[in-house]
Amino acid sequence: MNNQLKILGFTAGDGFVYRLNATSKLLFFILVSISCMVTYDTRYLAFVAIFSTLLFRFSKIPFASVKRVAQFAALFAVLNIIFVFIFDPNYGARLYGSQTMIFGPFSAEELFYLFNLVLKYFCTIPLALLFLLTTNPSQFASSLNKIGLPYRSSYSVSLALRYIPDMQEKFITIRNAQEARGMELSKKGNFFGKIKLNVQLLLPLIFSSLEQIDTISTAMELRRFGKKKKRTWYTYQKLRGQDFSVIALAILCVITVIALFFVNQGRFFNPFH
């Protein structure tokens, strides 16, 4: 399968992140992401952004496997920053209590605030991709069940993660077949025309996928799945020392953000005072 088809698919590997328990990885991702969303301390965000990027780099995941997601995230981030500035270009000045004009309508305070928004993307997106690409779906389901989510919902998430790469593969196969019949879907074609054609290919695939999901659900019901209150997990792993270290690091991040709240007397780090 082409690497681009495995955007959200698990790929077995050998590394520190791969060997971690899915529960510890999930808790680390949730706690660190929440801490980054809550605070606007640039020092903390910069540290987590660098750490997340290096962690993703050292995991040796090919960039080609997440290229599409990275491009979409970059586009979304740019659009978000543009709209934030357009709707309220003086928000940074009000937020930090001063206004230092640099050029045109841009102030140092507004650019600093937008920089913090960019850092938040670098904090969370690498961690999210790292978790999805290094965690076996069955282990992910067991980790969700371990932290309190009902096993029926946990198993649904596992099936979704398993099915997304298959759906991508089918879409590429259909698209290649249509290109062989003369449909222009390559980079040479018109941008909006390609979007329209891809949507025309995607909609039938979605409806056929829903039918397959219904078939799987019926088969699971016939096997009395979900009749018991609890279930065991074949792929469940016990927490080890390295897992407790990762969880402790995530808790330390949360404590750091709480401490910074008192140091900064709020969520924002203000270098202009």
TrEMBL record:
User: Matching PANTHER family, A to Z?
Assistant: ABC TRANSPORTER PERMEASE, PROTEIN ABCI12, CHLOROPLASTIC
Keyword annotations for this protein, in alphabetical order, are: Membrane, Transmembrane, Transmembrane helix
The record gives the membrane topology as: Multi-pass membrane protein
Q: Supply the InterPro entries for this chain.
A: ABC/ECF_trnsptr_transmembrane (IPR003339)
UniProt protein name:
Energy-coupling factor transporter transmembrane protein EcfT
Name the domain of life.
Bacteria
- What stretches pass through the bilayer? 26-56, 68-87, 111-133, 244-263
The record, for Pfam families, names:
CbiQ (PF02361)
Q: Provide a GO CC annotation, any one.
A: plasma membrane
Which CDD domains does this entry report, sorted A to Z?
EcfT (cd16914)
Q: What is its main location?
A: membrane
The record's subcellular location field reads: Membrane
